[in-house]
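Duplicate of #3305? Posting structure anyway:
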């Protein structure tokens, strides 16, 4: 799971503008390939998002996030490994 946090000093207006603008072409590629799904946007005082990022391991997820980090420079991005069925490896 990918979770955004506003970077210190980022203004709410900047965050809202970034999140309500058109998705970048590279981001759409991730969605089309199935690497990025279930993008949900936070509401309230601190705008942001979380999404499911499909990767075979943490290093691959980190690489995907680092490749797109410049498109979301107002946010710190956290990667949280999750799975559907914890009893299966």
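Output from current build:
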């Amino acid at each position: 799971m990918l979770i955004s946090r506003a970077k210190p000093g980022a203004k709410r207006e900047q965050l809202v503008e970034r999140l309500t603008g058109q998705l970048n072409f590279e981001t759409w590629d991730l969605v089309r390939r199935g690497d990025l799904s279930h993008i949900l946007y936070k509401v309230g005082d601190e705008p942001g998002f979380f999404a499911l990022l499909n990767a075979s391991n943490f290093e691959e997820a980190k690489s995907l996030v680092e490749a797109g980090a410049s498109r979301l420079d107002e946010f710190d991005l956290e990667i949280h490994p999750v799975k559907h069925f914890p009893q299966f490896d």
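Confirmed duplicate; merging threads. The chain has a mean pLDDT of 90. The chain has one domain: 2-79.
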